[in-house]
Automatic annotation (TrEMBL), chain A:
PANTHER family: FI03373P-RELATED, MULTI-COPPER OXIDASE. This is Multicopper oxidase. It comes from the Bacteria. GO terms for molecular function: copper ion binding; oxidoreductase activity. Pfam families: Cu-oxidase, Cu-oxidase_3.
TrEMBL record, chain B:
Keywords: Copper, Metal-binding, Oxidoreductase, Signal. The keyword Ligase does not apply. Gene3D superfamilies: Cupredoxins - blue copper proteins (2.60.40.420). One of its GO terms (molecular function) is copper ion binding. This is Plastocyanin-like domain-containing protein. The keyword Signal applies. Residues 1-29 form the signal peptide. It comes from the Bacteria.
Length: 427, 441
């Protein structure tokens, strides 16, 4: 056992003695009331299925960089178990048996050392009412920390301060406790979510993920554009302008290994010298971005984590597959804590159709004038979102690339030809 | 980190003596600045305080023998006026001013690369016609990579022809009407430059090697951004950055990129409409208003660029009554007119308070955990309701007098939320949504 490995395991052993792994002592609770309003708010024709309940854990873990290096992370875990790429946190319907009880026991114990990177994707539908419970499961590798966590639903319109997840204006959730956030999803679009506690640290450490809301227009009859019917849309657009066949959320992240190591080894944190050398899409550096293997192990599997095998914590490939003629929607967001990134699609032009969770029309109004534009590049700083559609009509079958134009970001630290890049395979 | 955030804030706020935040009127309905057509600037050295308590040498502009200030005075002028700025240079190096977006002419001084310069002890005069409304930047035109870092930057606001302070607009067009306005002049600073200048070692500065250590809004770092204008202990940093509105009010945000790097400014609470860029309305043509405005929740402010956005917050469609009204309160709402246009007919909002009618008396769908399970912000009233207040654990809360909702407006490149390696700080402030009836000067 190397010295470093031993250092890592020491606090773990200490914590094992204290609480025992996997059987969290804390009683986690959620609020998941049944939908009894008698109104069909999500437009699927069913009145009593609009409440959606989601649970996530907030804690720590490890992520594997493209060059094989393991970095200590803070992150969110899917409370129900392993993290698979598609619609990871679609949520569950309430249990009618819970009617009348505000709090019910959480359905799964907290995943110790189970942080996912990026956080489990949140995918909902306009008109749903979301009860999102965050369980703060604590930091196994840093038992000296007693950090609270929050969920900040970045871009939620007209949010009340109590559900904004900003510890500096309302509340944050202590270790061993749970809080249920409530969101009435009246606006579709591309959002993101992250912990806002000590944001520079908790976000650099990885507490962030994809979040998008399908428009209610998806419920309607298909809209034909250029002879082709579409039934999935980025936004309510009236005329099908944002219709797509294939969708991929593409979240920009970047890690500074010095900072992660400082956090792991209980050193003072270097904020002003923060320098990210692991640029990523969806929590992976190329070529891991195009590895479609889904995690086989439970992200909380202590043996695998300590043996540092596999990318169990990173269940989100960014490989895009389409058939020529498809329209591909990329929901591009950035949660880098350090810098702006330019993302280019050099071969297949981008049509910008959305921005900041609103359609690219006057004032974000579906009835406004089209302000769509064609480009090959978009530039995003932290907290920005751009929706682009790639029309693959006439594109020859083959492999195409989407990547950061900042060329120093095409590397996994010292290893070149990696970093913030993924592939589009046109069949 | 080891301490709960509320403790970090408390520590910083107490250091800053922030109890003054209790005093209403810490934010202005309009941007603070100086008006007129002739401005007599003196460039000189002085010092600023940073959010974590450091002191840095700056170059700044002063007016009428006052201390130098960071940023320079915000010049608020009228469209069509001819503006004259006389610059007296009391710095040990030559300096000048340029006015991007304006056709300035210079007289006096000596020829520099970008404009006429004033040598140490010298005087140069600039004038330009403020021919277009909007938000602009002025800055040093002499060795700007150093002198802007040292503080020689400022904002110009040009009011449109026919400006009515009682019914203000940014561009004279109804689509640019607003109730309040706020300046977000964004700067960043590599403090090693300031230190080397202070110790007479300017020759060692490598201007190609810039690593910001401080980030500012209107010349202050968080949490000093929250303090009132003109607090005595920040004599060279007179401008605050703490906008306040009521539900339904429109606030015009004037972003100025006086920085070296680009900074993405995120507005918690809601999207804004981006109506203008570099002093030009986003419009397809005369009379069409801001018809090219897009909606967004983060504005990247690029160096040298300015932007204007209009933000509003109503709390609509939360699906619960944000005032906590119940049937027992026996409050009847009135919605007979469109609050924005004044036209007859309902718009979904109470005509007086902007309460969202459909959510009236709906209970909050979840209960909050017990107080032992939460860490509280000093800006939390203790109640999830707007205008509410409640019991908080001893030592918690206390900075939110009216039960307002606080939304952080901040750089989302989160490393910029620090002051020379100390979190929290940097490019952050709050928007406060105050309950109806709370006076905002
Ligand atoms: Ca329903
Ligand atoms: Ca339904
Ligand atoms: Ca933006
Ligand atoms: Ca009304
Ligand atoms: Cu956190
Ligand atoms: Cu955010």
């Amino acid at each position: 056992m190397s010295c470093k490995r031993f250092l890592t395991v020491l606090p773990l052993i200490a914590l094992l003695l204290l609480v025992g792994v996997g059987s969290s002592q804390a009683v986690y609770r959620q609020q998941c009331p049944p939908d009894t309003d008698g109104v069909d708010t999500d437009g699927d024709g069913i009145v009593d299925n609009d409440n959606i309940c989601v649970q996530i854990g907030g804690g720590d873990g490890y992520a594997v960089m493209g060059d094989g290096r393991h970095l200590y992370t803070f992150g969110f875990s899917a409370f129900g178990g392993p993290y698979t790429p598609d619609d990871v946190v679609n949520g569950t319907a309430p249990d009618p048996a819970d009617a009348g009880n505000m709090w019910s026991d959480a359905t799964n114990p907290g995943l110790v050392l189970g942080a996912n990177f990026p956080a489990p994707t949140m995918h909902f539908k306009q008109g749903q009412k979301v009860f999102l419970t965050l369980h703060n499961v604590g930091m196994l590798i840093r038992p000296d920390l007693f950090d609270p966590h929050t969920v900040h639903y970045h871009g939620f319109p007209n949010v009340a301060a109590i559900f904004d997840g900003l510890p500096d204006s309302a509340v944050s959730i202590n270790m061993g406790s749970s809080m249920t956030y409530f969101y009435n999803l009246v606006e579709p679009g591309t959002y993101m979510y992250h912990c806002h506690v000590e944001a520079t640290e908790h976000m650099q450490m990885g507490m962030l993920g994809n979040f998008y809301v399908d428009p209610i227009q998806d419920n309607g009859s298909p809209i034909t554009v250029n002879g082709k019917p579409y039934s999935k849309f980025a936004y309510n657009d009236i005329n099908g302008a944002t219709g797509y066949d294939v969708m991929m959320p593409l979240q920009i992240h970047s890690f500074d290994p010095v900072f992660h190591t400082e956090d792991e080894t209980v050193q003072p944190l270097s904020f002003s010298t923060m320098r990210d050398v692991y640029p990523m899409f969806n929590g992976r550096g190329y070529p891991d971005t195009v590895n479609e293997l889904t995690p086989t192990a439970n992200p909380g599997d202590i043996d695998l984590i300590l043996n540092k095998e596999g990318n169990f914590a990173q269940g989100m490939p960014a490989l895009i597959k389409a058939t020529a003629g498809d329209r591909v929607l990329l929901r591009v967001t950035s949660l880098s804590t350090t810098e702006h990134f330019t993302v280019i699609s050099p071969s297949i032009p981008m049509k910008v159709v959305g921005n900041g969770a609103q359609i690219m029309r006057t004032n974000g109004d579906p009835t406004g004038t089209d302000l769509f534009y064609m480009t090959n590049s978009i530039r995003l700083g932290g907290g920005e979102a751009t929706d682009v559609i790639l029309d693959t009509t006439g594109v020859a079958p083959g492999t195409y690339f989407v990547y950061s134009r900042n060329l120093e970001q095409l590397s996994n630290n010292q290893e070149d030809f990696g970093g913030m890049m993924t592939e589009i395979i046109i069949q | 980190m080891h301490r709960p955030t509320s403790k970090n804030w408390s520590r910083l706020l107490l250091v800053a003596g922030l109890l003054l935040l209790w005093v209403a009127g810490t934010a202005q309905a309009k941007v603070t600045g100086i008006s007129g057509t002739f401005f007599d600037f003196t460039a000189k050295t002085d010092h600023i305080s940073t959010g974590e308590g450091n002191s840095l040498l700056i170059y700044g502009y002063s007016i009428a023998g006052s201390r130098a200030q960071y940023p320079g005075p915000t010049l608020i002028v009228n469209q069509g006026d001819t503006i004259t700025i006389r610059l007296t240079n009391n710095l040990p190096v030559s300096t000048s001013i340029i006015f991007p977006g304006h056709k300035a002419v210079a007289s006096g001084g000596t020829a520099g690369i970008l404009t006429q310069e004033a040598a140490p002890g010298g005087v140069v005069t600039y004038s330009f016609v403020a021919d277009q409304p909007g938000t602009y930047l002025y800055q040093s035109g002499t060795n700007p990579a150093l002198q802007m870092n040292m503080g020689l930057v400022g904002a110009i606001i040009v009011r449109p022809t026919g400006f009515d302070p009682a019914a203000p607009t940014a561009y004279g067009d109804a689509s640019t009407a607003y109730d309040y306005e706020v300046l977000f002049l964004q700067t960043d600073m590599d403090s090693t430059y300031n230190e080397l200048v202070e110790f007479g070692r300017s020759a060692e500065i490598n201007l190609n090697d810039f690593h910001a250590t401080y980030w500012f809004l209107n010349g202050r770092n968080g949490p000093d951004t929250l303090l009132p204008d003109n607090v005595s202990w920040l004599p060279t940093q007179p401008y605050n950055c703490l906008p306040r509105i009521h539900p339904g009010d429109k606030i015009l945000i004037r972003w100025v990129g006086a920085s070296r790097d680009a900074h993405p400014l995120h507005t918690h609470g809601n999207n804004f409409r981006l109506i203008a860029r570099d002093g030009r309305l986003l419009s397809s043509g005369p009379g069409n208003g801001a018809d090219l405005a897009v909606s967004d929740y983060t504005q990247t402010v690029n160096p040298g660029e300015t932007y204007e956005g209009i933000f509003t917050w109503t709390g609509a469609a939360m699906d619960w009554d944000m005032y906590g009204h119940t049937a027992a309160d026996n409050i009847t709402l009135t919605d007979l007119v469109n609050n924005e246009t004044g036209a007859a007919g309902p718009d979904g909002f109470d005509d007086n308070t902007y309460e969202y009618v459909a959510d009236h008396e709906k209970p909050m769908p979840v209960t909050l955990p017990g107080i032992q399970e939460l860490t509280f912000s000093p800006f939390y009233s203790g109640s999830p309701y707007l205008g509410g207040g409640a019991f908080l654990p001893p030592g918690e809360g206390g900075f939110n007098q009216h039960g307002g909702y606080y939304y952080m407006w901040h750089s989302h490149n989160e490393k910029e939320l620090t002051n020379n390696n100390i979190f929290p700080g940097g490019m952050l402030t709050f928007l406060i949504v105050e309950p109806p009836g709370v006076a905002i000067q």
